[in-house]
Amino acid sequence: MTLRKFLPAIHVHPVLLVFIIISFLTGTFIELMIILGIVLIHELGHFMMAAAFSWRIRGIMLWVFGGVMDTDEHGTRPLHEEVLVTIAGPLQHLLIYMLLFFLSGSHLLSSSLVEMAFFYNTVILLFNLMPIWPLDGGKLLFLIFSKLFPYRKAYHSILLFSLCLNILFIILLLLAVPFTLSAFVLFSFLAIENRKNWKERFYVFMRFLLRRYNGTTNIKRVHPIEVSCHSVLMDVFNRFQRDKKHTIYVTFPGNTRQSIDEMDCLHSYFHGRHYNKSLGEIVHYVS
């Protein structure tokens, strides 16, 4: 095993470097280091669990509002893996609480530093569990949606839900609760990220389909899909679900049916480029 298996590449966002300099000049350097330390331990929790499942990980990026593990595996791995990788981050906060409890009974750190770390550990934990994409709470909600709905609908739903929740929090900050600039900037940033993800939603869905076409997704059971012979391939793909293989039953006039495998549909789309052909035509073409 290589050292990278246990120690990921850690990158610091350029904007964060500016904040580090500002914190040093304004006397808030210790507070920022405590926050970054907690965030790093949180992200290492994600990394260690993902490495245990042999995920491809480019590294960890630390930025102004937190951190992120850089990987393309989200949406392409089995649901149970993504659940474990997602909750592994928040679970690290329990270990931090245990460490702080130990330190509070010793004289290694001042009580003010321990109390500050307790506060920031709680704030970061609760913030990450909010059901907003791409926070851990939002990812867990997306995984629940993925269990209930087709992949494309689940992804659209979590982005729309997150965007609406972000806007609601911004309105509350402006009208109903004491205004804090940091919270306003944070929720505004998340809203911008949601909008960016919404604009890239088709790319994410195509990556999901390509993974299925290349046979790199986990399949646990078969789930049939019934469509009209007048439907096109994208109508079928919109009903694809994670961890399930689909047999497509095409209904023709006279209530007759013919089946076609999902791989034939994916091959017709990506290789044959039959974007606008009806399923009836594709069934006859494959036969």
Strand content: 5-15%
* Strand/helix succession: EHHEEHHHHHHEEHEEEHH
Alpha-carbon distance between the two ends: 48 Å
What would you call the structural class? mainly alpha
What would you report as the Rg, rounded to the nearest angstrom?
Answer: 23 Å
The percent of residues in helical segments reads: 55-70%
Shape: elongated
How many helices? The count is 11
What kind of sheet is the major sheet? 3 strands, mixed
Average predicted confidence as pLDDT: 86
With strands numbered from the N-terminus, the spatial order across the biggest sheet is 1-2-3
Number of domains: 3
Are there runs of 5+ residues with pLDDT below 50, and where? none
Q: How many runs of DSSP E, i.e. beta strands?
A: 8
Main location: membrane
Organism: Lentibacillus cibarius
Keywords: Hydrolase, Membrane, Metal-binding, Metalloprotease, Protease, Transmembrane, Transmembrane helix, Zinc
Membrane topology: Multi-pass membrane protein
